[in-house]
Fold this sequence. Notes:
The chain is an alpha/beta fold. It has helices at 5-22, 151-156, 175-185, 205-217, 235-253, 266-279, 293-301, 332-340, 349-353, 376-399, 407-422, 433-444, 456-470, 472-481, 486-504, and strands at residues 28-35, 38-42, 51-55, 59-66, 71-75, 87-94, 96-98, 107-108, 126-128, 166-169, 195-203, 224-230, 258-264, 315-323, 343-346, 366-367. It is 40% helix and 18% strand. Helix 7 (293-301) runs parallel beside helix 8, helix 10 packs across helix 11 and helix 12 (433-444) crosses helix 14.
Amino acid sequence: MAIDSSKITGILRETLESYASKLDLRETGYVMQVGDGIARVYGLDKAVYGELVSFPHSIHGMVLNLENDNVGCILLGEATLTSEGDEVSRTGRVMAVPVGEALLGRVVNPLGEPIDGKGDIKTDRTRPIEVIAPGVMERQPVKEPLQTGIKAIDSMIPIGRGQRELIIGDRQIGKTALAVDTIINQKNESRRRPICIYVAIGQKQSTVAQIVATLARHGALEYSIVVSCTASDPAALQYIAPYAGCAMAEEFMWQGKDVLIVYDDLTRHAQAYRQLSLLLRRPPGREAYPGDVFYLHSRLLERACKLSQKNGGGSLTALPIIETQAGDISAYIPTNVISITDGQIFLETGPFFSGQRPAINSGLSVSRVGGNAQIKAMRQVAGRVRLDLAQYRDLVSFAQFGSELDSHAQAQLARGARIMELLKQDQYQPLPVEIQVAIIFAGVNGFIDDVPQNDIRQWEKDYITYLQEKHRDILADIKNTKQIDDGIKARLEAAIKEYKQVRAS
């Protein structure tokens, strides 16, 4: 009897196809050890660094360690639900977060999940949290100012769109206040208002709630996103929080928009990474930090830039915050971040407790963008401020010895003291740049030299009100022309003299 070979071939093909359809081709492994938010997984031989892996109970992990016989994963969920022997599978994806306009006005966790009780976030776009920063040829120089609304910063330590400016100082002396004021001040920007992202890393929940309430009260939440990872959250989430916030910011930057992002603060971020690294048995280095702690922050902050016009001309401005111990800016993490950023705003405890707020040390603070990040009007009036204050500091230390000062030195001392008073500013009261210019103009040109030092704040307040009521046209011209020509200068001088006469009568 002849055998029909085509039938046998057909049967074999059907059998193989049905068998192949039943095969589970996923690469799976098993949890060898779990604890403290870390899981060691055996069997994922082809897993790659940064890949998402799936655990039971809808928990995800991220691969951070690649060893000979296992991979080390950080758990991005409730770690107590994972136990030894659980099956783990690769996803083939890297960690990504939701992005887009739908996040504006919302408070989310580092996974992009809403935690403000306002319902789901409806967006289908995601971005990976780790990307390579744009190269040199994809950028352009920083040349457009980002106004903070704070006189001491906009005049002496200007910040440009696309810059990385470090805010550094001891705890509880106004670092977060500077960042929040800067976010609130963007409400004054009528053209190209930056989208603001505030990333809270290791803060108290009450502190984050207070910041969200402040932004909402001042109408700033509508153009802001708050990424909250509090002290009670796992170290794994604290580690990914700033990268998640940066991914959300880059979505807008690549659309040609301007973005401001605040990392509050990177000291706690480094501590969370140190905790994870030690649990993963990585070799500790200086102060028990792992050897790649510099790369931890450099790969994050290098993503801040001003894109070239060919790439849309968007910008990402970063304000990282670092907490020092007893004002020591030469410690390990502070020096790391100082060397990455384009300048720093150094806050000191001494001036803060003596009433100088914001307590900025103008000698140690610097902006490596300088006048490129100022409008011409501000450059014209603020050039003398830093010099006057430097001379004032020298004279103050000299006068402490009880030396006799000549009349010129006494005049310099008096001028410096009055400018220090003029640079004081209350929290949550950022000023438009044209008003700042008018105030500093009066200070550096000697119009306040005859005003008693303890009356300067009130004099300034009344002066602003007088200009807004009687000479709004001068402020409008400064805002529109962005410079002080001879005509505006003569009108401003006349307005100040007129105001002083009204005040004296």
